[in-house]
Amino acid sequence: MSDSPLISPDQLAKFEFNDDLLSSYRKSKQIPLDLYDRNGKLIMAKKKNATEEDFGKLLKIELQGAYCLTTDTKHLRITSGESTDPRQTKLFDPDKTTEFAKQTESLILELKKEAFNSEHALRVHKSIGKVLDDFTSNPDFESGLFNILEILNHAGVPVESELMTKRTIVAMGMKVRTKKIGVGDDNKPNKKDHLSVMTASFLADIGYSKLVLPDKPNLTKEEYNAIQQHPIISYLMTLAAPEITQEIRTLVLNHHRPFRGNSINNNFPDNNTVFRKLMLIRDKFIKDPSKKMIVADIDAQLRIQESNVNSVNFEEDIAILSLASEYASLTTNQPWRPAFSSATALKMIVNDSFFSYSNRNIRHLLDYVGASLTNNQNIINVGDYVITASIDSEKQAHFDICKILEVDRFQTRPKIQRLCTIKPLFKKGIKYRIADFDINEIRFDKRRAVIDLAGQTSSTQRIIYIIDPEMNAPLFDAVRKMDTL
Predict the structure, then answer these.
(1) Which domain of life is it from (predicted)?
(2) How far apart are CA 447 and CA 397, in angstroms?
(3) Quick one: which of 421, 412, 420 has its CA closest to 453?
């Protein structure tokens, strides 16, 4: 390609990468046009019978930008002969997904009787790798529907298996859509990070197999403390299998830490608690030569807990695990309540996000997989009322009631109109949360300022509450009446 003649820049048009276009190329297994850099140098030639390796190279080119001949711009449009909307494609095969859930059920039953071992680890790696390969081989994987609820509602598997299956698949979708699978140094798709998140999602709660769990929503302090032990127990169980990498074990150990730091938030267990528990286990094992590898891993985990300095990717992976867990739990029938609908579950997560997740975390859930989980129906729409939070230079939080004016591609970044400010009612139980908002503490915005969140990339303002008429009727009625004044 380096010897190819240069094309004059005035003959080139910007190649706009988008999910629908790339999906159509994948479906037809071809790259129908030559791609050039801004100076007219050929960087990728058109190709029939394109492979996943070719599409991996195409994704790399996306990062640097690409151009095509203006005469080839017809290939930048999906032809009218496209018979189906890729956004309506159901991404998961019922038989394969049910088989995965059944395999999960078998593993849980085995772990109630025996220790986790290398054979279990290899089976987990194999089954999870198959799920990821099946998902990414679908040409519509970046835009199709996550029909996981539809399948598991009829799979006939126990709650534990349903939760693990659902959590693993939702976490996979979030990771794949927020970090595209590129090509490694060996020119093969690099799926290591994606498989690590999936494996951690699958193994995060295996510690429950060693606990007797109460079938009730209101836990005693002792019961709650026992449940809090499960990340440590899950981590310790994986130590017997060297096939589980240290990175995966770190995620398992920390999967209930969705937000950085130890201040007022929903982190549990916090760093100090994890550190103390790991120290006790290390002190118990350090004199046993047979536990040398286990002690080495615990030492590494202690350094991570002590430093509390993690990469952005690590923090995001923990948030993905936690969000996928919450979604799986809310959409699953429990002994004390029926499952919530997908849309309601997503709204509940947003409405409980202020102390738990960053704006970026919620964006990863709603903007990349949210609509796929709700049959391409947004949970934030024109005319809806939401509450936003923002932090000023003195680190004071401000809460505004706003009306949605426009929603483009990303539903977490709509155009909004500020109606008034309001004060939240905080409550501390097992966790800190916003219990409600005080409608007696409202200050009107006479300007009715219009804010485009999509254009406010440096702003701290974000949606932290959706005012839903079924979830909070008194607040919704009060805001609707106020909006008509």
Answers:
(1) Bacteria
(2) 21
(3) 412
Q: What is the mean pLDDT of the chain?
A: 86
Q: Would you state the pLDDT for residue 29?
A: 82
- The CA distance from 371 to 374, in Å, is 5
Q: What's the angle, vertex CA 327, arms to CA 456 and CA 363, rounded to 5? A: 10
**pLDDT band for position 261 (50/70/90)?**
very low
Contact 303, 246 (CB under 8 A): no
Tokens of 370: 């949210």
Which pTM value belongs to this model? Answer: 0.79
The residues, ordered by sequence, that sit 6+ positions from 20 with a Cβ below 8 Å of its Cβ are 78, 86, 143
**Burial readout 142-179 (b: 16 or more C-beta within 10 A, e: otherwise):** bbbbbbbbebbeebebeebbbbbbbbbbbbbbbbbbbb
Which residue has 């496209």 as its token pair?
82
Instruction: List C-alpha distances in Å: 59 to 42, 376, 437.
Output: 16, 25, 45
Q: Can you give the pLDDT at residue 271?
A: 67
Dist CA 358 CA 384 (whole Å): 22
- Chain CA centroid to CA 373, Å: 12
pLDDT at 63: 65
